[in-house]
Amino acid sequence: MLKKIPHTYVIVFAIIVISAFLTWIIPGGTFDRHIVTVNGIDRNVVIPESFHYTDNNPQTWQVFSALFYGFVDKADIIIFILMIGGAFWIMNESKAIDVAIQSFLRFSKRIEHNRVIAKLGADNLIFILIMIMFSVFGAVFGMSEETIAFVIIFVPLSISMGYDSIIGVSLCFVAAALGFAGAILNPFTIGIAQGLSNLPLFSGIEYRMFCWVIINLVGFTFILRYAKSIKKNPSRSAVLKDDNYWRERQEENTEVIIHNTPVSAWIIYIILLVVLIIFSWFYPYSNLAIGANIVKLPVLPVLTALFGLTGWMTLRKSVHFFIIHILLFTILILITGVMGYGWYIMEISTLFFVMGLSTGISMSYSANKITKLFLDGVKDILSAALVVGLAGGIIIIINEGNIIDTLLYKLSESISGMGKMASVSMMYVVQNFINILMPSGSAKAALTMPMMSQFSDLIGVSRQATVMAFQFGDGFTNMITPTSGVLLGVLSVAKIPYDKWFRWVLPLIIILFILGFLLLIPTVYMELTGF
To answer: What is the model's pTM?
Structure first.
């Protein structure tokens, strides 16, 4: 009889203990660092050939204090998850998402009658369009933490369509991760890596665009094949029993929905419209960062005009459609804020919080009811927030133990003496390994690229090839590493146990890992633009 799989908390804490054990057997070491301005931002980067051993700093009781410091270090993401959980619980109570899903399902059935769409498969077409959108977000502005908010939308949708929560997570999180690995214009990975390597910003985009297409083709095919097998035989789902949570929630929401529009919804419409008009007045043009280019567009005025028109139309139909309308514009403003104003966790959390309040007031809920619903949502999603802090403890232990630089030094030493292709391949392997210990792409770039780029000069390989090795090594394992707070947050929100996710995603990771090797070959043996 099989033993019960350990809880995610147990798995993560076990990794913390193992990390502490490693601090006893791996010598302490460090690189000297200095401040370098990269794309207008100061970065603390290592000085090549400056490594020196230091006294050991073995971790013992710190495995417990690491939990505290992990929560402190990841406080922004934890609060982000809690605020999203509360906001979406209010929206869930309004039944607006249920109305939207029902409307979407009716729409997908109608388009199935089209011969071309019927041949391709309506669900396949819808999934591909959604995944392309999120992949673009990952490739252009490095969408990562933001996908946690979309899990709450796409998991119930995929289950309603006859699939499972893994498909729901794949539509947003995996698709964004594939785009993140393709990194066409990702300022947080390619932008920093190229800046530290003294390469023109976003140079070599032609080959990266090709890689992005290939990566998406492989990833989307894997996801769609799994979706087809689940649709045909739901018992094949790796999370069949776990998805009962979502099915029970859907059954609880089967009561008849009364379509009406309270006066309070019109009041919220007017308030939001006035706020958008004020912002449009002060910010008539937004400078959207798309790679190295800045595009000046009247985004806010256009969004304000659209909100005014479509908001009035949805209110005439039902408050539920108006709430979905608020959700849609929340997403559009989120994209504008990230690309045009450098928004991150704090601003996005605030945006979703306002969305939740607007939903509650539009439904004429009392202040007490809105508060209770928000707290219920926080309570429901609390485990997802806690696991993010727990995972942060792993990074704390490794850093406090002074072993991360030692590991990097030993790995870089192992590369010397190899041929060009073997060296680039080893760089790729090293970056994958480091990504397990340090999921942050920008931090990893600051740690590795100053050395790797100079090492590529010694062996006669383009620095651009080194950047590509970093890009792939940083991207693929984000979907499986247990130290990633984003991954664990996504899985906890979706109610997917880590071990089941690991078994499902491992074949995809292996395929992508091999694909990364193949895509690196032209960077060594072919003359590519920008290389």
So the answer is: 0.79
